[in-house]
């Protein structure tokens, strides 16, 4: 019974991976693709860590899984932030799709300051 | 038992499709940042597949590998983002001249 619960959790995580890949293929520009990419990085890893904990049912496994999830939660936003920032500077963003653009004001202020 | 076999087959198929779609985006990707995002997604899918393998075969030999992948996975994307930044500044300077 616990095996089945663990496998269902892993299946949910794998479906999140699949949605991320479909989003990666279907969305049009870099920030939209980043939005899709965060699903397996955070939610999928959490679901699969829960599945491993349920299946193995030992404390050493949990002691491995907690750092995995915490490190993933800490590092995914850093890489996403850097990629999005470079995409903005690169000009690979469709500016018509942005409703609020606070970085443009900041860059303009920086240019005015010299 | 049969329920578990069906679940394992479904997991294998879904992971294979997800990895294939990420690789297609990595080949097609118009800019290098798209490829960086696709490789990041592929790496986190490898992380998920290692966890699924640990669940299916009921062992914990792959957990240290998962820990190392989640710790070092950020480096590739950050390095690509920095490289793109430097090249862009160089082209901007040439345009100003």
Q: Ends of chain B: how far apart?
A: 71 Å
Number of domains of chain B: 1
Count of DSSP H/I helices of chain A: 4
Order of helices and strands of chain B: HHH
> Which outline of chain B best applies?
flat
Distance, first to last CA of chain A: 67 Å
- Total helices of chain B: the number is 3
Characterization of the model:
The complex is a heterodimer of chains A (114) and B (97). With 114 residues, chain A is mainly α. Chain A has one domain. Helix content of chain A is 84%, strand content 0%. Chain A is elongated. The mean pLDDT of chain A is 86. Chain B is an all-alpha fold and 97 residues long. Chain B has one domain. Chain B is built from three helices and no strands. In chain B, α1 packs antiparallel against α2 and α2 packs antiparallel against α3. Chain B is flat. In chain B, 36% of the residues are buried. The chains are: A mainly alpha (114), B mainly alpha (97). The interface between A and B is large, with 52 and 52 residues.
Question: Could you outline the blueprint of secondary structure elements for this entry?
Answer:
The complex is a heterodimer of chains A (114) and B (97).
Chain A lengths: L1 H25 L3 H27 L2 H32 L11 H12 L1
Helix pairs in contact in A: 1-2, 2-3
Chain B lengths: L1 H27 L3 H26 L5 H34 L1
Helix pairs in contact in B: 1-2, 2-3
Give a brief outline of the structure:
Chain A has 114 residues and is an all-alpha fold.
Features:
heterodimer; A: 114 residues; mainly alpha; 4 helices; B: 97 residues; 3 helices; flat
